[in-house]
Amino acid sequence: MSAPGESGRLTPAELRTLFLFEKLTDEQLDWIADHGGVRHVAAGDLVIAEGEPADEFFVLLSGTIALTRRVGQDDVQTIRTEQRGVYMGATQAYIRDEGLERRYLASMRALDDSDFFVLSAEDFGWMMREWFPMAIHLLEGLTLGMRNTQAAISERQRLVALGALSAGLMHELNNPAAAASRATGALRQRVAGMRHKLGMLAAGKVAPERLDALVELQEDVIERAAKAPTLTAMQAADREDELGDWMEEHNVTGGWDLAPVFAQGGLDIECLELIKAKVVEPGLLDQAIHWIGYALETEQLMSDIEDATGRVSSLVASAKQYSQLDRAAHQWIDVHTGLDSTLVMLGHKIGDGVKVVKDYDRSLPQVPAHPAELNQVWTNIIDNAVQAMHGAGTLTIRTYREDDHVIVSIGDTGPGVPEKLRKRVFEPFFTTKAVGEGTGLGLDISYRIVVNGHGGDIVLQSQPGDTKFLVSLPVAEQASR
């Protein structure tokens, strides 16, 4: 490819035929003619490459060109044109941004033999700043202002999201913690009651061998309870009635209060008859059943405490997984781990009105990714889906493989996004939410994380009652350019 001017020059009169230069003075056109030149590019040749230093400004004189962006392993065509005078390349060379190396944002290829008028980025930047100082000040203010605004709002959005996640996590942690606290208090009372009943049994002058048999029976009852099948609500109610009637017939004090404990433990009339057979002295049956009831309640309360503390540990593990505080920034990951931890973190926000359906392909390979960044993507998309459904509907998360990509589909049953707005949902600051409810940066950030950061793609498909965001992630490490 030749340098500017090697293939020829344009006269000031020819430059004036281009809409960019038609209002310039003769002196300005002379300067441009002296500093720029014509470059010919053969059909099929690459003119500029995405990611390379943006050191030239191009104006199309003739031919057809196409601009493409790299998405994963594919080049996606964004523009195809043959309009004379269109420009591309170092289009922001006039903005002073010390220390920042500008690079081409897209690749440009000549689809047929094409000619360009070319200025170096340095000359183009000098020309714009010297000839149009007021316009440059306005453009710099607009560009830098939008950048600063985006950064400030993005930071604020992260803080708001962190606050919402923290509030949700605290709410989720409070439930099992409170349950464990209640169960511990009740357990203390039951143990005290069991000690009291044991003393009463001993005071009843039970023969040692009889007491040993009763202790063995207690262990047998607890083992039965551990293995008992879970009853439905109707079955449990029927079992409580049967046990209550039996205890009433045998003059067990507070039998109807004990019946639910035995029923919840999975015990039946046969078990009560076994207890009766072990206790020969009729006067001790009441004390024995109460003692075993306390033992059952103790086991149930300890199970409740174990479940509650296990839930706390699970939530802490999910929060740790979500934040990725103890893991490398870039690694090979299973996308399901991040999806699950995100659902846990957003559990309070999702609420009871939204049904979550997970259709995972667990055979999917791991993908190279920044897991904390992908968790931000899942958070943004799931949060949008929940808001779109106004707290009632179905959230469907599906994973599958398509060629050399892993696809994560996150769908909701909300009203959908109108067709005229679908192309704009990834634009910075664009939002369909009411004022104060959204910044319009969540999907923009998600797009940049997936496309620019991971070489993938993110697509919206929407119709009323069925909206999906499809996130495509390559299964192979992206080659550096």
Automatic annotation (TrEMBL):
<dbReference type="InterPro" id="IPR036890">
    <property type="entry name" value="HATPase_C_sf"/>
</dbReference>
<dbReference type="InterPro" id="IPR003594">
    <property type="entry name" value="HATPase_dom"/>
</dbReference>
<keyword id="KW-0808">Transferase</keyword>
<dbReference type="Pfam" id="PF00027">
    <property type="entry name" value="cNMP_binding"/>
</dbReference>
<dbReference type="InterPro" id="IPR014710">
    <property type="entry name" value="RmlC-like_jellyroll"/>
</dbReference>
<dbReference type="GO" id="GO:0004673">
    <property type="term" value="F:protein histidine kinase activity"/>
</dbReference>
<dbReference type="InterPro" id="IPR000595">
    <property type="entry name" value="cNMP-bd_dom"/>
</dbReference>
<protein>
    <recommendedName>
        <fullName>histidine kinase</fullName>
        <ecNumber>2.7.13.3</ecNumber>
    </recommendedName>
</protein>
<dbReference type="InterPro" id="IPR004358">
    <property type="entry name" value="Sig_transdc_His_kin-like_C"/>
</dbReference>
<feature type="domain" description="Cyclic nucleotide-binding">
    <location>
        <begin position="20"/>
        <end position="124"/>
    </location>
</feature>
<feature type="domain" description="Histidine kinase">
    <location>
        <begin position="297"/>
        <end position="477"/>
    </location>
</feature>
<dbReference type="InterPro" id="IPR018488">
    <property type="entry name" value="cNMP-bd_CS"/>
</dbReference>
<keyword id="KW-0902">Two-component regulatory system</keyword>
<dbReference type="GO" id="GO:0000160">
    <property type="term" value="P:phosphorelay signal transduction system"/>
</dbReference>
<keyword id="KW-0418">Kinase</keyword>
<dbReference type="InterPro" id="IPR005467">
    <property type="entry name" value="His_kinase_dom"/>
</dbReference>
<dbReference type="InterPro" id="IPR018490">
    <property type="entry name" value="cNMP-bd_dom_sf"/>
</dbReference>
<dbReference type="Pfam" id="PF02518">
    <property type="entry name" value="HATPase_c"/>
</dbReference>
